[in-house]
Hints:
Layout (H helix, E strand, L loop, with lengths): L1 E4 L9 H5 L4 E3 L5 E5 L2 E2 L8 E2 L5 H10 L5 E4 L2
Antiparallel strand pairs: 1-5, 1-6, 2-3, 3-4
Amino acid sequence: MKVWIDQDRCTGAGLCELLEPIVFTIGEDGLAVVHDGDSALPAGPAGTVTVPRENERQVLEASQACPGRCIRIDSE
């Protein structure tokens, strides 16, 4: 599974980071981004990250809970 954030739809609610802090974080601008290790990736498809298998369930939960519906998932 791969995931990225559509920041045009992000509300900055922070539920993604709350539910899955290994994959998501809130950036300095108040909008969500994904992590790749210790690095925050750029917004949009360029910031796609492969989700560790052990975190997939939480990423799906975060996607369903997101009020902006901005979490984009590619099941591969």
